[in-house]
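Hypothesis: this fold can be encoded by more than one sequence.
Test: take the structure tokens below, design a sequence, compare later.
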């Protein structure tokens, strides 16, 4: 995995001083986590502003009920023209292929605890996630419909 030097302005690790941050190397995954955390902060602010500026109670309820990933994808990443997002394997199951060189959009995945509960349920077992497991959100990577070649697009190209 490629390591990147962390610039002074990128220091978001608690408990580190700027001098140590200059020397600290972080992985690409850690950098993506930092970027997604910042995108989440922006998304929360946008959500709050939209709720505050809503002209009807229904609009305020709509924005309040949207998950954080909705605001990350539609407002922070500015995804104009995109109609759907799916994980790599979901596109693959539909017969679509991700175009060469395309980069995934990082979003928050389902909490670890919820994943474990669903896995246990599918096996006919009971599992009760801990509070800590329900507070841990992994990074999930999705691709948009504009980043893949679907079966129809492949046939049209022939």
């Amino acid at each position: 995995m490629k390591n990147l030097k962390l610039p002074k302005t990128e220091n978001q690790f608690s408990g580190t001083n700027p001098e140590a941050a200059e020397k600290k190397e972080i992985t690409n995954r850690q950098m993506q986590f930092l970027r997604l955390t910042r995108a989440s902060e922006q998304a929360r602010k946008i959500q709050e502003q939209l709720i505050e500026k809503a002209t009807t109670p229904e609009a305020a309820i709509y924005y309040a009920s949207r998950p954080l990933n909705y605001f990350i994808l539609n407002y922070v990443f500015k995804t104009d023209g995109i109609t759907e997002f799916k994980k790599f394997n979901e596109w693959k199951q539909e017969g679509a292929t991700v175009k060469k060189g395309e980069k995934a959009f990082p979003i928050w995945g389902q909490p670890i605890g919820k994943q474990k509960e669903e896995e246990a349920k599918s096996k006919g077992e009971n599992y009760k996630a801990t509070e800590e497991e329900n507070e841990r959100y992994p990074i999930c990577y999705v691709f948009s419909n504009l980043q893949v070649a679907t079966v129809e697009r492949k046939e049209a190209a022939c």
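Strands lie at 3-5, 25-27, 85-87, 97-98, 105-108, 139-144, 148-149. Residues 1-78 form one domain.
Hypothesis status: open.
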